[in-house]
Design brief:
The chain is of the alpha+beta class. It contains two helices and seven strands; from the N terminus they run E-H-E-E-E-E-E-E-H. 26% of the residues lie in helices and 40% in strands.
């Protein structure tokens, strides 16, 4: 399954949104890489098992399920999460890219690649649509948590 969508962070047409700068959004993405628990409900533990300049290898504990992934950081641009395929987990990747399509507009592009089939007529098609909706909601929550992190670091 290939799934891609945008989540608006800054929209000049929406005065109710507190504007975030690229550095605040990047810091929020780094927080997700370092400890994904506030971003992923049900995640019980996030352990960094390897670290280099722009890469982390993590173990994510969801109940009895253990998922190992590699996080690649492109500073101020993108974060890529690649989960390993195991007998109980199909593996896949998520790339989150910070984009500025127009002056004052900041968006995050979420790009998923999984092994889940999504061809029309496939018995897994309805499940793929459910997964897409869950991913979309999770990505909205990611921006919400990034906003909370940014707002907690601001001097009032």
């Amino acid at each position: 399954m290939n799934f891609e969508h945008l989540v608006v962070v800054n929209d000049p047409a929406d005065p109710l949104l507190t504007e975030l700068n690229r550095e605040e959004v990047w810091f929020g993405l780094l927080c997700r890489a370092e400890d994904a628990r506030p971003f992923l409900p049900g995640l019980e533990a996030c352990t960094i098992v390897e670290r280099s300049a722009n890469e982390l290898v993590r173990e994510l504990q969801f109940g009895s399920a253990l998922i190992r992934d590699r996080v690649t950081l492109m500073p101020m641009e993108s974060v890529r999460f690649e989960s390993e395929r195991t007998a109980s987990h199909p593996g896949g990747s998520l790339t989150i890219t910070i984009e500025e399509p127009a002056e004052g507009v900041l968006v995050l592009r979420f790009r998923y690649l999984t092994t889940l089939p999504e061809e029309s007529g496939s018995p897994d098609r309805a499940y793929a649509e459910y997964v897409k909706a869950a991913y979309h909601q999770s990505d909205l929550d990611t921006v919400r948590v990034i906003r909370m992190i940014a707002e907690s670091g601001r001097i009032q």
